[in-house]
Design a protein that fits this description.
Length: 376
Amino acid sequence: MLRHLTVARPDWQQRVEKVGLTYHSPGGQIYWDESAYWEFTAAEIDRIGAATAELQTMCLAAGDFILDNNRLGDLRIPPAAAEKIRATWNAEPPALYGRMDLAYGGDSLKLLEYNADTPTSLVEAAVAQWYWLQELFPGADQFNSIHEKLVAKWKDLSDFVHPPVYFACEDSDEDWMTITYLRDTAQQAGLTAASMEMEAIGWDARHRRFVDTSNRPMETIFKLYPWEALLSDRFGAQALETMGPVQWIEPIWKMLWSNKALLAVLWEMYPGHELLLPAYLDGPRDLDAWVRKPLLGREGANVTVKLHGITVEDTGGRHSDGGFVHQQYVDLAAGGNKRVVLGSWLVDGEPCGVGIREPDSYVTTNSSRFVPHLFR
């Protein structure tokens, strides 16, 4: 894995905007950074894919473990949701995608967390870096079949969803472009689809159903909106009540994986595993260097990094009040002077691509730079 400096395309802003990456410079700060790129070997890509697949298998076992041992309380999941989580875990309703964040030091891969419910940085990983590759390095390859896998998955789901498939999110540029892209993949698969804000979803009390702005019943809803937030909303009870007649993608069982308590459960099940970092729910125990993460945190908020008794970073922000996990600290710059987080993408549980983030600080946030990659 080598980092190369290069010259950005003179009109790179217009080029990435053309393929949907409109949030490339939030607040004037560079987010999409093509002044550098990362080069892998084919063997390294194979290793990343194999590690991601192995971790996915371990997470499936962890879901069974949590439910079989009544450990939902450790995840601070509301008791009202427990029955629906169990039911959907067993019934396996439509699920789409996820992103595992990995630390890669050249000689080791470690799971940092699993973004299984509302993963973003999708447009840049699936589309923007692919067009960058085709224009500048047409003879090289890229670990990136995300788009093809998404279209294929929607085709697989065509007999199980109830069109139109509604794509809903909060009002932010990144979220809007993410659901616009996902809606496009569904339409390429032959499905009818529509987009709307989460707060525009209506409730028909007479017929006990969710409706769109034209009062039509909504039966399949892809929500780029965390399950813990949905359940705490004023219509959270109705979301549970209508589950079944309404298909939510991602399904509610994804709460088992999007919760960072998963890291401690995995370490309990697979102590010493080469792809895992020690992680605990009851404190740092004997860890000398650790990262404290909220179980339901998002975008690097409310994370504390402590190295040898010294707090080196403590981020602000908001998170649901649901406890913390302590995970062993790992140096994200072990292979050089740039911190790197690999976002390993899965569609339908299968590894299909990588997106690379370069945080300037110890904690990766939503503003940490995205840098393209290739392999030869």
